[in-house]
Amino acid sequence: MGHAQYHAVQPFVRAVSGGISTAAIKQCSSPEAAKRLAERLVSEKKAIGALAYSRPGASSADEFAAPTFLARIGEVPETDDY
Predict the structure, then answer these.
(1) Which segments in the chain show pLDDT lower than 70?
(2) Do 35 and 7 contact (CB within 8 A), yes or no?
(3) What is the spatial distance between Cα 36 and Cα 16, in angstroms, rounded to a whole number?
(4) 76 phi and psi, to 5 degrees?
(5) 3-state secondary structure string, the chain?
(6) What are phi and psi of 12, to 5 degrees?
């Protein structure tokens, strides 16, 4: 079973109730690409916040280690809140 490093961005949007909600996770090709995408989503007002992260996992199974957070941009709830 091969191991891979996954890089992604979790965008956050304003919910109808006024709270913060998650949007679809976006995978990226590198840690730098994840950071740039997080910054762009917030600067272009496509999200109120974004969390860029990396995490190792098995490429053929749903086994993932805890994420390493790369960047918190804009309004991002505490990790335990989502």
Answers:
(1) 1-2, 58-62, 79-82
(2) no
(3) 27
(4) -130, 125
(5) CCEEEEEEEEEEEECCCCCEEECCCEEECCHHHHHHHHHHHHHCCCCCEEEEEEEEEECCCCCECCCEEEEEEECCCCHHHC
(6) -125, 140
Tokens of 40: 């762009």
> Is 46 within 8 Å of 80 (Cβ atoms)?
no
- The structure tokens listed for 76 are 């991002």
- Residue 39, token pair as written in the block: 């910054």
Q: Tokens 């941009």 identify what position?
A: 73
Q: What is the pLDDT of residues 42-53, one digit of tens each?
A: 999 999 999 999
Residues paired with 26 in a beta bridge: 9
Structure tokens at 11: 């965008």
Tokens of residue 71, six digits? 């960047």
* Gap between the Cα atoms of 61 and 11, Å rounded: 24
Kindly report the pTM of this predicted structure: 0.84
